[in-house]
Amino acid sequence: MTKDIAAKAATSAADQKAAPKRKPVIFTIIGRQRVGKTTLLNALAQTIHEQGGTPEIWNTDLLNRSHSISSFHDAKSPTGGDTKRQRKWLEEKIQSLMESRHDAILDIGGGWTALHELISTESLTRALDMMGITLSVAFLIGHERADLDYLEDLQTNKKFSPRNAAVILNEGLIPPSLDVDDVFEEVAIHPAVVEAMDNGAKLVLYPAAEPMKDVCDRTLTFRAYAEGEQKEGFPTSSIFDRLAIDRWYRRDFPVFLRELGAPRLPDMPKGLPVPAESDV
User: Organism's domain of life (predicted)?
Assistant: First the structure.
């Protein structure tokens, strides 16, 4: 080995040693029941896999049978029990990331969950900081006032306002009689959203796709549905529905992910997906 090559190798090794290791990311969504949390997490997990990522999938939403994230991915779940036992399981899974350095996608479900139990009994953000793990939280809401009350309760009563969170408005929950821009502006000035944004949160619109339920009912991936794969026991999907999902998954959803920003998301070695052209 020549001196030049040896010097370059030493410099490269020093650079690698000096470069900070990427922190594992736990991405989860908090919100009331039936606001679309599992569907969004499912689409995210499918995209991450296509982009070369290998996050662990954790499912503590044990009451969701028909649209469970476990129907689409090899998800790890607690064996059952009450929320306190599920909390202990979740604590163990979080601790395991210190060794594996994997990212994780956590589907907690609605209502009182294992994560809520953890929030109420521990300083979760501080504990994760000590472990070198990033908790990336998205609050998913619709147009109903109660959705924002839910966020406000977490901030006020649980003292849970994680840094750099996302507040996501699900366009699919906005009635056709309401203007999406008007609802977005109204949400943006709500005190709970303002507080979250003061703490680094970003308000983002999650785009709707009308055939979404058809995809989930069939337990097909979004790409498989768009490409015309059929499921026994269901009517043949129409070309118009398949094109709508194709547009959503290849154009609208990647735009949404770019709005969220890569730092909030689990690692995608190939990078965030590039949105398809508008005429897909």
Answer: Bacteria
Q: What's the pTM?
A: 0.88
Task: List, in sequence order, every beta strand (DSSP E) within 94-252.
Answer: 104-107, 134-141, 166-170, 202-206
Sheet holding 166-170, edge to edge: 56-59, 104-107, 25-30, 134-141, 166-170, 202-206
Residues near 18 by beta carbon (within 8 Å), at least 6 away in sequence: none
DSSP state of 274: P
Q: Are 50 and 60 within 8 A, CB to CB?
A: no
Please report the pLDDT score of residue 20 as a whole number. 58
- The DSSP secondary-structure symbol of 252 reads I
The DSSP line for 90-116 is HHHHHHHHHHH---EEEE--SSS-HHH
Domains and CATH numbers, the chain: 23-206 (3.40.50.300), 210-253 (no CATH)
